[in-house]
Specification:
Blueprint lengths: L9 H4 L6 E3 H6 L4 H7 L7 E4 L2 E3 L7 H12 L4 E3 H8 L10 E6 L10 E6 L6 E3 L2 E3 L2 H9 L5 H13 L5 H10 L6 H11 L5 H13 L5 E2 L3 E3 L4 E3 L3 E3 L4 E5 L8 H17 L2 E5 L3 H4 L1 H17 L5 E3 L1
Parallel strand pairs: 5-6, 13-14
Antiparallel strand pairs: 1-3, 2-3, 4-5, 7-8, 9-12, 10-11, 10-15, 12-13
């Protein structure tokens, strides 16, 4: 291409062009190396996102720009994973967003650089396209995220959101943990155990541990309860079907509006009308006063056990 004609090349002018390009590709269309360096210098119209990768504007790089740069750095077949992929899938309760995690074939020698974390793998997943970018499926992206965390609450929150919002099942996460490398999976496996039992949040996971500590019979989590006529009563956080005991982990966060308060009052009225014994516990007490909560659970269990079981049905 003749000198000076590169400015009109489709790589730089086509509608919807990605703006993130390799410096080598710019040279291929005729942009001199010194021109690339000059345009990427402070105050210039371009900027260098990563070594050899250029953003053809000088504004704040977007998440998409960073993702495209990571893929170019990883080269053909690279797949985005971790928190970047989860955010693109639509999850919200995620740890920091500074790192872009990219998977590449194990045979390829590419190092971490800048904001890009590179992982070589023999299990490159079949990607899902989000905004035209290849993303690891949710179970893989969740596992790639949590096995790098050190805080069990953060790991549990990521997994719980993915399950609660039906992006995947706990069994899918367990399967993914079983397929990959074992390094870094001990803590995620512990965090996943309550979710496999039916818990759907960090608070419910805390409740699962407290219930196990109580020595009371096992029950079920988040199961709809109906009366003898099939009328809906509630879906308690925990349900002991043997004696029709409901346990609700009720936080202030979910009762800040008048509508929320009304819904809780109505739910409790349905419990009473159906003859169900219900215990309400603040999430914070599961950690600050576990022994007292255990005593309250045992007392509620004895109360429920002492009366005839009402005719209510768990789904």
């Amino acid at each position: 291409m003749r000198r000076g004609t590169w400015a009109s090349h489709p790589l730089l002018t086509a509608p919807g062009h990605p703006e993130v390009v390799r410096a080598a590709d710019l040279e291929d269309i005729g942009v001199p190396r010194r021109t690339i360096s000059r345009r990427c210098a402070a105050g210039g119209p371009w900027q260098s996102l990563l070594p050899g990768i250029v953003l053809t504007n000088n504004g704040e790089p977007s998440d998409e720009h960073r993702g495209r740069a990571a893929l170019l750095h990883g080269r053909a077949g690279a797949v985005l994973t971790g928190t970047y992929a989860l955010r693109c899938h639509g999850l919200e309760r995620l740890p920091g967003k500074d790192v872009v995690h990219v998977l590449i074939p194990a045979s390829r020698d590419v190092a971490d650089v800048g904001f890009v974390r590179v992982e070589r793998t023999n299990r490159l997943p079949r990607p899902h396209l989000k905004a035209g970018l290849p993303m690891a499926p949710v179970p893989r992206a969740v596992v790639d995220t949590v096995r790098r965390l050190t805080n069990v609450d953060e790991a549990q929150a990521v997994m719980a959101e993915a399950v609660q919002r039906r992006f995947c099942t706990p069994e899918m996460l367990a399967d993914e943990l079983g397929r990959g490398r074992t390094a870094g999976t001990a803590m995620p496996r512990r965090a996943l155990a309550p979710l496999l039992a039916g818990a759907r949040s960090v608070a419910e996971a805390d409740a699962w541990r407290v219930w196990r500590r109580s020595g009371l019979p096992a029950g079920r989590w988040n199961v709809p309860i109906h009366d003898a006529q099939g009328g809906y009563i509630a879906t308690p956080d925990f349900w002991c079907d043997e004696i029709a005991l409901a346990w609700e982990i009720d936080s202030f966060l979910h009762h800040t509006s008048l509508d929320d308060h009304r819904a809780t009052v109505a739910r409790n009225a349905r419990y009473v009308a159906a003859g169900i014994v219900v215990l309400q516990t603040l999430p914070s007490r599961l950690r600050t006063e576990p022994d007292k909560v255990v005593a309250e659970l045992r007392a509620a269990f004895r109360t429920a056990q002492a009366r005839p079981r009402p005719h209510v049905l768990a789904a």
